[in-house]
Write a structure and sequence with these properties.
77% helix, mainly alpha, elongated, disordered N terminus
Length: 223
């Protein structure tokens, strides 16, 4: 990857971005799986009575505990990439990249808050939540996550893929994978269960690539 400024901190940026991307991908994937297990989707199988199961509630609590840390590492991932691209970045794409990343984080937190509200509905222990409260919280959480957060993730992936292609910092297979991810997030995430997992999968691949590229760069510098 290109270096945009001299100095030790600039050389360490790719490693920071790669590590942050990997940790973010793992945390987000774990949170998504736990939310799917804790607040399942599907009119035929999901009832408020089923949410009295301790396993569902524990899975949701675990997911909600992971989401803030996933957001923190995503912001670090975003900032480290911008710092590495630096002065050569396209201002239009950089604005879209930054804006979509921030909106994604806010929407992710909103979805987590909506899912958490399902836990906080006042009802006696062992008694299912009120149907109206259950349906509202569940549908709001899934709408924010699959309908809005994933669309912002698609914008984030597309802008980074275009910048990576133009600057030559992302290999062609990863760029193609990015555009496939965009299509899935735009058109399938709200209709196909588990489709949103393509975003953490892409983030993991990108983080691994940046980490390897940074390690090769440091090896050449040491040589």
């Amino acid at each position: 990857m290109r270096e945009n400024a001299p100095g030790h901190s600039a050389l360490r940026t790719p490693r920071a971005a790669g590590l942050a991307g990997i940790v973010f991908a793992l945390l987000l994937a774990a949170a998504m799986v736990l939310v799917r297990l804790g607040v399942p989707e599907g009119a035929d199988t999901v009832t408020a009575r089923g949410f009295t199961d301790a396993g569902h509630r524990d899975a949701l609590r675990a997911a909600l505990a992971l989401v803030p840390f996933a957001g923190i590492f995503f912001l670090w991932f975003l900032g480290a990439i911008r710092a590495h691209v630096g002065a050569v970045e396209d201002k239009f794409l950089a604005t879209v990249f930054l804006g979509s990343g921030l909106v994604f984080t806010a929407t992710l937190f909103g979805a987590a808050a909506a899912a958490g509200a399902v836990l906080e509905v006042a009802h006696p222990p062992g008694v299912p939540p009120l149907p109206a409260a259950w349906d509202f919280g569940r549908h709001l959480a899934y709408t924010l996550m699959t309908g809005y957060a994933m669309r912002m993730a698609a914008v984030f992936v597309s802008s980074l893929s275009v910048m990576g292609h133009r600057l030559g910092v992302l290999p062609r297979p990863l760029t193609i994978a990015g555009f496939v991810t965009v299509l899935v997030l735009l058109f399938a995430s709200s209709n196909v269960p588990w489709a949103e997992l393509v975003f953490p999968a892409w983030s993991l691949l990108t983080g691994l690539h940046i980490l390897r590229a940074g390690s090769r760069g440091r090896g050449r510098d040491a040589g």
